[in-house]
Amino acid sequence: MPCMLLNPHIKYKPYTPLKLENRAWPTKTFTKAPIWLSTDLRDGNQALANPMTVEQKNIFYDTLVKCGFKEIEVAYPAASDTDFSFVRGLVEGGKVPDDVWIQVLTPAREDLIRRTFEAIAGFKHVIIHMYNATSPTFRNVVFHNTKEQTIDLAVKHTKIIRQLSNEYAAKYGTRFKYEYSPETFSQTEVEFSVEICNAVKATWGKAGTGDERIIFNLPATVEVGPPNHYADQIEYFCSHITEREKVVVSLHPHNDRGKSFALDPYSLLIHVHSSGTGIAATELAFLGGADRVEGCLFGNGERTGNVDIVNLALNLYTQGIPPNLDFSDLQSIIDIVTSCNDLPVHPRHPYAGELVFTAFSGSHQDAIKKGFEAQSVRHAQAAAKGEPLMWDVPYMPIDPADLGCSYEAVIRVNSQSGKGGIAYIVKQHLQLDMPRKMQISFYQIIQGISDREAREVTVEDITTAFRTKYYLGGPKYEGRLVLKSFRITTEPSPDPISQTNDDEDAPDERRRFDGTISVDGVLRVIRGDGNGPLSALLDALRTYLEIDLTLREYSEHTIGEGQNAKAASYIELVASGPDVKETRKATQSWWGVGIDSDIAGSGLRAILSAANSAIGDRPLPELKLDVGFNVASGQADVADAIVNSLNLQLPRRFQASFFEVVQRATANSGGKILFEDLTALFQTTYGYEIADEWHFALRSFKLEPIGDGSHRLFSGELAVDGQVQSVSGEGNGPLSSALAALHTLITGTLSIREYAEHSVGEGTEVKAVSFVELLYEKEGQKQKEAAWGVGSDTNITTSGLKAVLRAANRLSVVGK
Ligand SMILES: [Zn+2]
Predict the structure, then answer these.
(1) Closest Cα to residue 260, out of 324, 304, 326, 208?
(2) pLDDT > 90: percent of the chain
(3) Cα 69 from chain centre
(4) Ligand 1 midpoint to CA 155 (Å)
(5) In the predicted model, is pLDDT for residue 168 greater than 50?
(6) 499 pLDDT above the threshold of 60
(7) How far away, in angstroms, is 415 Cα from ligand 1 center?
(8) Which candidate, 149, 147, 126, places its Cα nearest to that of 135?
(9) Local confidence band at 641 (pLDDT 50, 70, 90 cut-offs)
(10) How far, in Å, from the CA of 99 to the mean position of ligand 1?
């Protein structure tokens, strides 16, 4: 089966180059936009398998007007009733703005010309466009006309148009322009094209300057040579036509030699970065001296399409030249054009394709990310100096925002993408700027998803993977370890039980972490010491949960500004080993991220984020209810039990104090105590939420400001061993004035050593819990007595007062 020839020259002849001396176009540059004519509704429409309905033409027409076209070829009115009635509808509907010229096409036939004029009756501004084919093939084969007969045909019908335009101008006040196309110009001897156009111009006889110019439209009806050949033809025509100043030279290129891609939206295998020779031919021919371009949006048209005006206009725009067309909302234009034409815009169509502002390749993404970062710095500097903010981003000739596209789509991820692009997406969407090593680590996770799913990874995939991997973003993403509350102290408060170690305390400042974390849903109170908050938490994890990790890398940055600013911390942890050097060189590591309004908090959260990865689903030591006699773990176990049974977070020194109580209570059972018994022991010892039959009990009280308002007068009724007594006292606040009142009943002095409070429960169930440690100094005794009390109430003041009295109950207070 013979197909392609080995020697195609025996079948196809090359174009004949023009002998143009000193051609000028190759050294010219663009300085302004051409006059644009959209022929979407005529040439474009003729090329559609299903030509547009009148309704679709109207929608399309409105879009063209909105884009800013001032010359629109709306129809071939003599060809069909649809076209004729569409044109009538434009004038009857008053749809033509005063500055828009409506163009209609007619062949050189008198009946069709008359019908065309009937269609435009009543318009203000009309371009009558007449054509006849001039190339040798058409003259000799189609029409059997000589050159002279071909000229006669054009001249004869130009006369008819001249006469009719005079009549319609008189009757309707219409202003006319005349456009003549030597159809098949690119295949016609250029000398003959000039000859026939000069004859038409002479016949028209009305060509002047400005809006009076005659339009000679020079179609590359079929592209037969490379773009430079068309440019040569145009430059020849421009320099040989007479009265050049009275002529608009118009280009009408098609794309026969270079439509670059199939219109198949699902084939992503085509990698050509141009939309065809129509663009090149137009640009070169425009440099050759043309004034005007006829084309279609996105290059629709016969065979391989007309030249793409969007592409041409945006090429000028990216050269800093105003195109005089507005494609600010390109997507809605695409939507209208594709629905009217029923043809898709290729995903890689210049400027308009959905993949055009998208980078999949890692090196491209990296360059774009760096480009954006450098540009924002450059723009800030330029803005400060009042200079223009010039666009310069690698791989991006235009700012997508100018076309109404968001940056979101700029970087997309598939198996070809790199860490830079993923880091960029995390930064754009989560405001997190990962350190470089962490980018590599997270990249592997995304690669895994991409390989597993064998598809493009979406922005949502990436942000979800990030949150899941680093346990970030609320309860949904929480890991096994969750920070509930914490306190960092610079100098650990004196601990009555470890006072023997006082002398060994290092003089340099150390940090202590005291906190409550949820471990597999159970609240645990842990603490640890270190050079800083992070090492103190790591110490606590090691001591209480057997999670032995070492910090290898730490960095942080702020997110946002001013009052809403937050800190983001990034932590890399490795498993602790016996040798410090070996530990730091470990190949396995875990990254964590933490965000908090407090910088220490963000670091601590980052530690737990990384620790959550490190522990996987390995079992952790459970909360021990067998209270041993190890001071450090024993106190924490007791505190854990109370947190879990009563939701109370005991102050550190209270933990130590209660631990002593527990130790005494369990002395005979070898330190073992049941969970329920421990809770009961706490409640009976401190009077927490049990019946109120105590030595001192609060029956009622009121507090009033006195003096300048800085003092309080407490007056109330206290039951002392069941006997109600009225008391009053003054103090700085509720608690001190209550103590003053109490002093009217007792000898010696009570003072508050420590006070803490927190809320328990939620919503309407919420109540305040107060912890008070009272000191009692008996008359004539040097040694002070101390006791803790716990109070709770919906009113925070009442809760504090109850705690004071509960503590007083536990002291051997002597009455008066
Ligand atoms: Zn055409």
Answers:
(1) 304
(2) 55
(3) 33
(4) 22
(5) yes
(6) no
(7) 43
(8) 147
(9) confident
(10) 25
- The CATH class given to the 481-615 domain equals alpha beta
Q: Are 102 and 69 in contact (CB under 8 A)?
A: no
Do 777 and 797 meet the contact criterion of CB atoms below 8 Å apart?
A: no
Q: Are 636 and 625 in contact (CB under 8 A)?
A: no
Q: Which residue has the tokens 């060809």?
A: 79
Ligand 1 center from residue 251 Cα (angstroms): 10
- Between the CA of 73 and the centroid of ligand 1 the distance, in Å, is 11
Section 486-502 average pLDDT: 59
Query: Alpha-carbon distance 410 to 390, whole Å?
Result: 19
> What is the pLDDT of the chain when averaged over all its residues?
87
Measured in Å, residue 255 CA sits from the centre of ligand 1 at 10
pLDDT in tens, 322-377: 999 999 999 999 999 999 998 888 888 889 887 777 777 777 878 888 898 899 99
| Span from the CA of 39 to the centroid of ligand 1 (angstroms) | 8
Q: Are residues 131 and 68 in contact, defined by beta-carbon separation less than 8 angstroms?
A: no
**Ligand 1 centre and the CA of 38: distance in Å?**
11
- Taking the CA atoms of 462, 464, 467 and 468 in sequence, report the sign of the dihedral they define: negative
> Which residues are in the CB-under-5-Å shell of ion ligand 1?
43
**Secondary structure element (H or E) that encloses residue 750, with its range:** strand 749-760
Cα of 44 to ligand 1 centre, how many Å? 8
Q: Is the pLDDT of residue 420 over 70?
A: yes
How confident is the model at residue 815, as a pLDDT?
A: 80
**More reliable by pLDDT, 577 or 32:** 32
Q: How far is the CA of 181 from the centre of ligand 1 (A)?
A: 10
Q: 135 CA to middle of ligand 1, Å?
A: 15
pLDDT at position 450: 81
Residue 327 Cα to ligand 1 midpoint, Å, equals: 23
At the top level of CATH, which class does the domain 696-809 belong to? alpha beta
In angstroms, the CA 297 to CA 39 distance is: 9
pLDDT at residue 274, as a whole number: 36
Report helix, strand and coil shares of the chain as percent, to nearest 5.
45, 20, 35
If you measure from the C-alpha of residue 46 to the centroid of ligand 1, how many angstroms do you get, rounded to a whole number? 9
100 pLDDT more than 80: yes
Q: Residue 216 corresponds to which amino acid?
A: F
* Whether residue 602 has pLDDT greater than 70: yes
pLDDT tens for each residue of 733-756: 899 999 999 999 888 999 999 999
Q: What is the largest distance, in Å, between two alpha-carbon atoms of the chain?
A: 139
481-615 shares the fold of 25-341: no
- Which CATH fold would you assign to the domain 25-341? TIM Barrel (3.20.20)
DSSP state letter for 173: -
- Contact residues for 476 (Cβ-Cβ < 8 A; gap 6+): 467
DSSP class of 263: S
- pLDDT beyond 50 at 272: no
CA distance 628 to 595: 37
Q: Where are the domains of the chain?
A: 25-341, 362-470, 481-615, 631-686, 696-809
